[in-house]
C-alpha cells in the first residue's frame, strides 16, 4: 500500500459521514493530525459545497473540496474550477422529469437548490412516510431536510450556472426507468451520470467525475498523481478509485465495490471506519517506522 501518501481524498456519504449525516469529532481530529504531518487531505463528494458546513464539527478543515462529483473545486473560499450544465440541457431534463414524475433538485452555483413550484406536489409525495425499506437512512433524512428547508421553490429556473441535477425515486423500478430516459436525452446532448445508491442518479457535465476533479485539484497544488489515496463506498467513487494509486473501500460498501479496491476498512462509517483506518495505517505506522 501507499505507506505515506502525499494526498488523501475522502468521500462523504457512507464514508466520513455516518448514516445520520454527521462527521464525528474523531474524524476531524485524525484529519488534523494527518495534515500536521504534511499530508494533504481533500474532500471528494457528490454533495454541493454549500451543504458541507452543517455536516461537520466546528473547526473542521481540509486542504480543498471537490464537490458535485467533480464539477467544482474549492480551496477555502476560492473556486479553483466550476463546470456548468447548459440551460438547454436543464430545461430539457426538467420537462422530461415532470412527464415521468421524478423527484429532482437542480443545484445552481452560489444559490439554494431549485425545484419548480408546479412540480412540488409529486416531489413532496415521493418523501411520504413510511420510508421504503431499501432507501438508506442518510439519503432519506437528506431528502426530508431538503423538502423542509433546503429547496428554493421557484416559478421558473433562474441563473445560468448549475453544478448538477440530483434525482430520487421511492422505488428502484421508477429510478431505473428514469435512467433509461436520461440515456435517450444523452443522444441529443451529452452529459455524465453518477449514482450513489439504488434510488438516485445525478447528472453532470459530460466527462466530469471525481477522478477529473482530483486531477484538477492536484494540478492546482502542483502535486503529482502518484502516492495518492482515496476512501469511498459507492459507484460514484469508481472514477476516483481508478485515478488514485491506492483505493480503499468502506466496510459498508457493496461487495462489487470491495472487489475492485486495494483494501477495505475494518469498520463501517457508523463505527468510525475512516478514523480507525487512518490512525492505524498512516499515524501509527509512521510512528513505528520513525
From TrEMBL:
GO terms for molecular function: magnesium ion binding; phosphatase activity. InterPro entries: Cof (IPR000150), HAD-like_sf (IPR036412), HAD-SF_hydro_IIB (IPR006379), HAD_sf (IPR023214). Keywords: Hydrolase. GO terms for cellular component: cytosol. This is HAD family hydrolase. It comes from Guptibacillus hwajinpoensis.
Amino acid at each position: 500500500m501507499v505507506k505515506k501518501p502525499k494526498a488523501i481524498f475522502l468521500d462523504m456519504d457512507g464514508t466520513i459521514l455516518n448514516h445520520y449525516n454527521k462527521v464525528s469529532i474523531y474524524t476531524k481530529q485524525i484529519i488534523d493530525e494527518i495534515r500536521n504531518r504534511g499530508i494533504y487531505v481533500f474532500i471528494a463528494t457528490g454533495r454541493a459545497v454549500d451543504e458541507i458546513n452543517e455536516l461537520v464539527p466546528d473547526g473542521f478543515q481540509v486542504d480543498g473540496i471537490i464537490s458535485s462529483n467533480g464539477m467544482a473545486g474549492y480551496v477555502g473560499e476560492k473556486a479553483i474550477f466550476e463546470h456548468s450544465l447548459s440551460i438547454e440541457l436543464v430545461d430539457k431534463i426538467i420537462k422530461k422529469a415532470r412527464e415521468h414524475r421524478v423527484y429532482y433538485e437542480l443545484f445552481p452555483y452560489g444559490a439554494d437548490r431549485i425545484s419548480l413550484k408546479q412540480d412540488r406536489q409529486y416531489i413532496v409525495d415521493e418523501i411520504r412516510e413510511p420510508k421504503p425499506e431499501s432507501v438508506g437512512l442518510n439519503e432519506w433524512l437528506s431528502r426530508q431536510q431538503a423538502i423542509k428547508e433546503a429547496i428554493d421553490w421557484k416559478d421558473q429556473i433562474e441563473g445560468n450556472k448549475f453544478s448538477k441535477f440530483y434525482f430520487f425515486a421511492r422505488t428502484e423500478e421508477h429510478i431505473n426507468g428514469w435512467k433509461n430516459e436520461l440515456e435517450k436525452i444523452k443522444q441529443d446532448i451529452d452529459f455524465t451520470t453518477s449514482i450513489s445508491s439504488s434510488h438516485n442518479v445525478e447528472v453532470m457535465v459530460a466527462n466530469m467525475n471525481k477522478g477529473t476533479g482530483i486531477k484538477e485539484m492536484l494540478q492546482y497544488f502542483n502535486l503529482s498523481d502518484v502516492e495518492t489515496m482515496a476512501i469511498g463506498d459507492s459507484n460514484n467513487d469508481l472514477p476516483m478509485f481508478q485515478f488514485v494509486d491506492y483505493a480503499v473501500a468502506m466496510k459498508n460498501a457493496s461487495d462489487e465495490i470491495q472487489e475492485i479496491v486495494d483494501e477495505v476498512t475494518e469498520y463501517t462509517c457508523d463505527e468510525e471506519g475512516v478514523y480507525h483506518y487512518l490512525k492505524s495505517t498512516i499515524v501509527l505506522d509512521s510512528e513505528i517506522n520513525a
